[in-house]
């Protein structure tokens, strides 16, 4: 493993947040989950592995135009926001530079961020993955030892199909799937607060059952979650006692249980009917 002498050797757990399909809420979930984990007293970092469409800088409220300082001409010092350390491609390129890189270049950029970021001691480093199952996903599983992956999905059938691809990819590269996160499961009315499963219920639970993993959380589709994320002030810090923050707190708890329960065990077996 190309791990000795890098920032990663003082990171206890690397957790990838992934999905097969784009736009299901990986980045929003990563930002809130990271903050919820930090709120429990853990040292937390976020690596934005979305080279083409980085979003953690905006979501975590890192001021536009921020760049990491460097150390010994070798290390990037991650930026700090809301108490979590963040590294993103967005901090390394000009806002106007189009990122029309081909696969190998993007994988190289990720590798650099992965191996040359000076995280310091961390309990959990969350990796916000780009959509899909391509080069970036492969690079990550080859260059770093992941504790596991969370697969985010929405309850719609198409997204669930893509979630299957995500799960199967991690199985192929021997990364344990810690569980499924169903996002935008229910709609919360911003007028009266009532909650409705507009895309149907139980999809995430069925998927989890089928793959021998767990449904860690069903997160609501909520206007405030989007507004807080857009404002760089995720719900977990914007309204720490609000229903969204509590849901992310419960997700963090379930993830910690999945990791601690999984310690010393082999990757979960995959059973496909
Ligand atoms: N639970 C939620 N409630 C309301 N809006 C949400 C929720 N989760 C995500 N969103 C919104 O949906 C949009 C897509 O979310 P996000 O960027 O987190 O998805 P993603 O999976 O990271 O997308 P990509 O594949 O492009 O990286 C954003 O506008 C975000 O604010
Ligand atoms: Mg994203
Ligand atoms: Zn209503």
Provide tags for this entry.
12 strands; alpha/beta; two-stranded antiparallel ribbon; eight-stranded mixed β-sheet; binds adenosine-5'-triphosphate; 273 residues; Rossmann fold; single chain; binds zinc ion; binds magnesium ion
Lay out the secondary structure.
Blueprint: E1 11-18, H1 26-39, E2 44-48, H2 56-59, E3 70-71, E4 75-76, E5 79-81, E6 84-88, H3 103-115, E7 122-128, H4 135-143, E8 148-153, H5 157-172, E9 177-182, E10 187-188, E11 195-196, H6 203-210, E12 215-218, H7 223-230, H8 235-238, H9 243-262
Parallel strand pairs: 1-7, 1-8, 2-6, 2-7, 8-9, 9-12
Antiparallel strand pairs: 3-4, 5-6, 10-11
Helix pairs in contact: 1-9, 3-4
Bound molecules: adenosine-5'-triphosphate, magnesium ion and zinc ion.
């Amino acid at each position: 493993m190309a791990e000795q002498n890098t920032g990663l050797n003082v990171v206890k757990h690397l957790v990838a947040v992934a999905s097969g399909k784009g736009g299901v809420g990986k980045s929003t979930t990563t930002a809130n989950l990271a903050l919820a984990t930090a709120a429990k007293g853990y040292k937390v970092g976020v690596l934005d592995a979305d080279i083409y469409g980085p979003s953690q800088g905006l979501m975590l409220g890192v001021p536009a135009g921020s760049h990491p300082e460097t150390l010994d001409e070798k290390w990037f010092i991650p930026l700090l926001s809301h108490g979590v350390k963040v590294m993103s491609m967005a901090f390394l390129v000009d806002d106007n530079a189009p990122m029309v890189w081909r696969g190998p270049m993007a994988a190289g950029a990720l590798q650099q961020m992965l191996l040359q970021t000076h995280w310091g001691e961390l309990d959990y480093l969350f990796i916000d993955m780009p959509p899909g199952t391509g080069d970036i996903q492969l690079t990550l599983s080859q260059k770093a030892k992941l504790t596991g992956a969370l697969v985010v999905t929405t309850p719609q059938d198409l997204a669930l199909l893509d979630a299957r691809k995500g799960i199967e990819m991690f199985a192929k590269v021997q990364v344990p799937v810690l569980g499924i996160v169903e996002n935008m499961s229910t709609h919360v009315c911003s007028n009266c607060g009532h909650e409705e499963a507009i895309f149907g219920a139980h999809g995430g639970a069925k998927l989890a059952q089928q793959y021998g993993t767990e449904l860690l959380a069903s997160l609501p589709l909520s206007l405030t979650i989007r507004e807080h994320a857009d404002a760089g002030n995720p719900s977990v810090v914007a309204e720490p006692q609000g229903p969204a923050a509590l849901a992310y707190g419960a997700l963090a708890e379930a993830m910690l249980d999945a990791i601690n329960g999984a310690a010393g065990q082999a990757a979960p077996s995959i059973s496909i009917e």
